[in-house]
Description:
164 residues
Amino acid sequence: MRTALIAALLFFVATPALAQLSDFERSRRNTAAYFNYAEEGDVTMHVSVWGAVRYPGLYEVPIGTQLSELLSIAGGPTVGERTRRSKRTVTIKLFRDSGVGRSVIYEQKAKNGVNATGRDIQVMNGDVLGVEAVVKQGLSWRDLFSVITAFASVALAVERITGK
């Protein structure tokens, strides 16, 4: 009973204090999602990196940071192991607030590799970088065998039901 009373008291005392924190201050308390890549004296901005990267989270970077730099410090796309039959597509999108909501201002798709082609733009305060990695496996002889056996099972069931 005493433990429950102390827990309730701590909850009611801590909740208003946490509610007064901004999203940025809350993110600073979670060190697993906040990364500071600025040096002393740099003018900084905050950008978010989400999706299939090694270190997703909120980044504090110097103003003037390029998209390729941000992707590199986030660990790059995590695409996993690639086999000969697999085809992978990595899609990189940069979202920016346009006044009425976020819109995509940059999109690049790379198939079977991550190529640094196209323009390298500067990220701005509040931008969100989204990385999506999709791996599609090709067909193998095992897949073909499964299809043939399923088709044969259906044909056998039809033959048994109809009696022909």
